[in-house]
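Why show two proteins at once? Because comparison is the fastest way to build intuition. When a single record is shown, students tend to memorize it. When two are placed side by side, the eye starts asking what differs. So, the first record is below.
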Amino acid sequence: MNVFLYAFAGYVVLGTVIALMAMKGLRTQEEYYIAGRKVSGVVSALTYAATTYSAFMMVGLVGLSYASGVGALGFELFYLVGTLFLLSYYAPKVWEMAKEKGYITPGDMIAERYGREVAVVMSVIATVALIPYLSVQLIGVGLILDKTSAMSFSYGIAASAILIALWAFLGGLRGVAWTDAIQGVFMLLMAIAAIYWVHCNGFADKDFFAEVTRLGELLVVPNSVWTPVKFVSLTLPWFFFALTNPQVFQRLYIPKDRASLRRMVILFGFFGLIYTVIVTLIGLELRTMTEIGAFPRVEDRDAVTPTLLGLMPPLLGAAISLSIFAAAITTANSIVLTLSSMLSRDLFGSERVGTGRVIIVLLTFAIALFAYSRPNYIVELSVLSSTILLAQLPLILGIFHFKGGAKIAGISTLLAGFTTAVVLSFAKFSPLGIPAAVWTFLVSFVVFFAASRLGI
């Protein structure tokens, strides 16, 4: 029996036990979706990190670093700096408002400011936008399982979908947060193990820094991949991720007090910096090893990590595979829970936990179908989601900085931004050489301020 399957079986049992333990007392939406606002700072930080850093990192970003060079590090650090900047300023304000007014979903805050109809539109757009990002998690898992011969790509997607639906269905956010705390530490430890193995096997008798400097443009930005337009198109939506992506925005509701919130931000910053540097370094070392003949040349960048795992000792490969699997599952759990809360509460106006559980099952089925088609690379799918979600940014910032704007302004902003992002992204069209993310950003703000000036 494949060694990964033993590890996988243990992981399934442990996660299911945690989800069953977390079921107790999940009678209200506040308990089910935001763990009763009683999460400690350490667990909040680890669940924020595990929700953010998914298969995107150990599969997508390793491959991007391998294919494009050090620009991938700048791209991801730009996200981290933006997130810490936004959290430092907005997290205390969001936490206080949510606690005082009883917000459960991001749509609750939008509904109070712009009207329930705007929250309805936002819930639908967020669902459409996040299906590609959710599919990334299943695609990453499917590729790992297929490459390690644990199971086929399609069976890997099916197994992932079942676990996502089951654990979110049973344990709600409390169960997800408990597993996140374990998985966050496991993810970081396995990333350290991966870079140690790669370095020892590729550069035991060579100087990595001397070898990598011979790669030319991979250490230079801009280069043939990281043009200024490419960099802006990927980093702009990522910079505002903390405000526009509902699954992490909702995480700002869960710390039990201000001290826990502050601890969450600080610890997440340390986690993110260490994890990002390690992951991009893995990609750069593997590319350097390819050039010196110590690692196979991989054309499909999303297959770089699966190829690496196939060369590792079985036990180590299984452990790292499991950490990627865990990262993907916990991210998907969090997103599905958040979308379930928005659809059941904001769209359908239901206060029942049971409604959300039904939506979880339906959502997961739709995501599995999308992932099975594997429409694009992992990084591009992730950025597409965040590009669409930029349409929400003017409304969120408007709550704190702008008094104008009402229902029509909110709806028109969301629809204009969504349409711009989808049309330009799928048409692969950049008017005036300006990428879709920038156009989405500009159109959303122009429509918001224009409609607000009219008092609608």
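Second record. Ask yourself what differs from the first in the token line.
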Amino acid sequence: MNKLSRLVTEDLSRRKFLAGAGMAVTALAAAGCGDSNNSSTTTPPPTTTPTITDTDILNFALNLEYLEAEFYLRAATGSGLTSTDAGSSAGAVTGGSMVSFKTPAIQQYANEIANHELAHVRFLRKALGSAAVNRPAIDLTASFNAAASAAGIGSSFNPFADENSFLLGAFIFEDVGVTAYHGAASLLTSTSNLGAAAGILATEAYHAGTIRTLIAQLGDPYLTTANKISMLRATAGGGAETTLDAGHIVAADSNSISYDRTTDQVLHIVYLSAAAGVVSKGGFYPNGMNGTIAASKS
């Protein structure tokens, strides 16, 4: 952990990299054009784009972990992150309540995943040290209603109403987490950071597989609802979805490799903005994420 923390905060300017398709760097070099009477031309200085570092990528992941932790902790215990885990200037969280679980196994899954997401928040905050961003404002009420409306499943949706609704709410997050961490794999420059991200991705994949299996076992109407959510994610996040049914649990491409998403695609999903263009807030993050990667580029 100490080694990871040092690597996260060290100067990475020597190792610039492209931050995904949505954060591509365009070098601008425009020569000044005068009329035929001018004897010289001038070239303006090139426009530089700030380098995205491992710190920025891990803070982007921390924003996502804050959201998952708040969702699962509130569903499992009725309470969210403490001020110690959320940061000294944390944004408010709207909505969320303890689910009245009827099935002991599903309640156990909720408790276990809640503990995992809390551990992820603590791990990333410790690794980032003083560079860790605070929890942004999070909405767990209007966001789900807007997602339900956009997906065509009704004007409102409360994932805390019962255990089956909880599974559908979890389905919204888990596949996004897997694709986001996979997308980060090509952006991280430190092998230690890459190893940590791969470990978190594996845990998120276990979560996603569990949730997808339980929903497939429920059948309709929950299975149909989950696939409508999947189609909404595909529209906002560049595809990367596999139709869920009893014979297709794993979300992966034709080579059985899990999908990946760029930071832009993830932002469009969590901000609930399927339209192309710059988006900087909305959906689950009404005021936007915290950190350098908070607005999409396209």
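One difference worth noting in the second protein: The radius of gyration is 21 Å.
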